[in-house]
Specification:
- It is a single chain.
- The protein has about 475 residues and is α/β, with parallel strands linked by helices.
- It folds into 2 domains: about 280 residues, TIM Barrel, CATH 3.20.20; about 120 residues, no CATH class.
- Helices cover about 30% and strands about 15% of the residues.
- It is built from 13 helices and 18 strands.
- Strands 3-11-10-8-7-6-5-4 form an 8-stranded parallel sheet. It has a 3-stranded antiparallel sheet with strand order 9-13-12, with no helix packed on it.
- Strand 5, helix 3 and strand 6 form a beta-alpha-beta unit.
- Helix 5 packs parallel to helix 6.
- The longest helix is centred in the N-terminal third of the chain and has 27 residues.
Length: about 475
């Protein structure tokens, strides 16, 4: 055991202060999470559109048959509950009473509260806690407490936790299992970078976590309730000054990226192979996600195409005004758009390169795409099943009107489609591939030399040495 690292008391049992990060849409399942718990830590089953299985053990494809988005949304919730329940039960069996099993949900996923209630109702006694981020999950504490399970909010600032605590969590303080601080500059997947923070200027997590502990103390939360450091965690020896530090109180560590490259990890071999080739800087912090949040993923062809699409963008006016004195004559089929002279020339150049269709965005701009891109965008928007509470790409919202009231944004993408595709064997270049910014260390860490892929138990044992 690394110097100073001690087991923590969680959900009435002693466990290692090592948590497996919950990676949505089947990238974390029973196999990896059950093995993590069996090794003595806290395994985290993703309850975000998890896989179900047929009687032969084959994954049931999540195909939508309903004609309306509202009805497809109901199908989605059914898939989500059934899959997560199946994954929890299988993870519990693998753990055999060791460690603990958490579930992870995205608060901004469509039907989040219904899914969470459905899963916890059908897995009573199996789930120790719920980790939840992406948004401000005020009702998380109430739901978790009603099933006698812990809740672990994922936040990126003391300010966010203070708001949650004052409005809701203080009323269910006894079920607060830990607070997960997720570094918004280093964590993989969606993160909590605010508009007041510069995505290009990472901040040292130590003072931010110290401020979080001080905020927790103001609320009367004891120092033995863990803060879980998530995002950018690779070697424990790099965090030696955090362990047994009276300024920070009890610290635990969450590993999201490292468990991707294990024998039990459910991601396809092609995805695992890519992880071993990444260089520092190959992960992009971007804002293309239809959630509206920043997120981090491998900068592959998929993300490069989104970057290029947004670069083929010009502002317009519906009448001649100011610098917009030139009527656009390509890509708009007779509709009147007024642009600057420079943008008119740019648009004509894009048109000549095959980007012949101009699509309006919610920001009074036009993006130029190929006819094939346009057809795919429109089809994906039409096929929407409401996987997010509010989707910028399709304008779906989980409200009475089922609409955000904003124009669908063609600069984004269908996140459900691409995440389902990559985790079930689709292209690692043409899909979104989430990863933390430390993923380049797979190539540098001697633990993985000569193509070695550890079991989860071997990985946990390695982490416990400090490496």
């Amino acid at each position: 055991m690394f110097k100073g690292l001690e087991p923590i008391l969680y959900a009435g049992r002693e466990v290692l202060p090592l948590i497996e990060g919950g990676k949505g849409v089947a990238a974390t399942n029973h196999s990896s999470s059950g093995a993590w718990a069996a090794a003595g830590g806290i395994g985290t089953v993703s309850a975000v559109n998890a896989d179900s299985y047929d009687p032969e053990g084959k994954i049931i494809p999540q195909i939508y048959h309903a004609l309306s988005r509202r009805d497809r949304h109901e199908e989605l919730i059914g898939y989500a509950v059934d899959g997560a329940v199946e994954q929890v039960k299988r993870a519990w069996d693998i753990a055999s009473g060791a460690g603990a099993i958490n579930i992870n949900v995205l608060w901004e996923m469509g039907g989040a509260q219904r899914v969470l209630n459905g899963v916890l109702e059908k897995t009573r006694g199996l789930v120790a806690g719920v980790t939840c981020g992406a948004g401000m999950p005020y009702k998380l504490s109430e739901i978790a407490a009603s099933y006698n399970v812990n809740y672990l909010p994922i936040i990126s600032s003391a300010r966010a936790f203070r708001a949650l605590w004052k409005r809701a969590y203080s009323k269910a303080a006894e079920w607060l299992g830990a607070v997960v601080y997720e570094d918004p500059w280093l964590a993989g997947g969606h993160n909590g970078l605010s508009n007041a923070e510069d995505p290009l200027k990472p901040e040292d997590p130590y003072p931010r976590v110290k401020a979080l502990r001080e905020t927790m103390r103001e609320g009367g939360i004891p120092d033995n309730l863990p803060i879980v450091m998530a995002g950018g965690v690779w070697y424990l020896r790099e965090w030696e000054n955090w362990i047994d530090n009276p300024e920070l109180g009890q610290i635990a560590f969450q590993f999201g990226t490292r468990p991707l490259l294990t024998q039990e990890s459910p991601i396809p071999q092609t995805w695992k192979d890519v992880l071993t080739t990444l260089e520092e800087g190959d992960i992009l912090l971007h804002r293309f996600s239809p959630t509206g949040f920043y997120s981090s993923a491998v900068r592959n062809d998929f993300l490069r195409n989104l970057e290029k699409r947004s670069e083929r963008q010009i502002a317009f006016s519906r009448q001649a005004a100011g610098d917009h004195q030139f009527q656009l004559d390509v890509g708009v089929k007779g509709r009147s758009f007024w642009v600057t002279r420079n943008d008119l020339l740019r648009a004509r150049a894009w048109y000549g390169l095959g980007f012949t269709d101009a699509l309006k965005t919610p920001d009074n701009t036009l993006v130029f795409v190929t006819p094939e891109e346009r057809a795919m965008i429109r089809k994906d928007q039409a096929d929407c099943m409401g996987c997010l509470s509010q989707c910028q790409f399709s304008s779906w919202a989980d409200n009475e009107d089922n609409s955000t009231g904003r124009l669908a944004d063609p600069r984004s993408f269908c996140i459900q489609k691409t995440l389902q595709d990559i985790v079930h064997g689709g292209s690692t270049e043409e899909n979104l591939m989430f990863a933390g910014h430390g993923a380049y260390q797979f190539k540098q860490d001697p633990f993985y030399s000569n193509g070695f892929v550890p079991t989860v138990k071997q990985l946990v044992d390695r982490i416990l040495t400090g490496d």
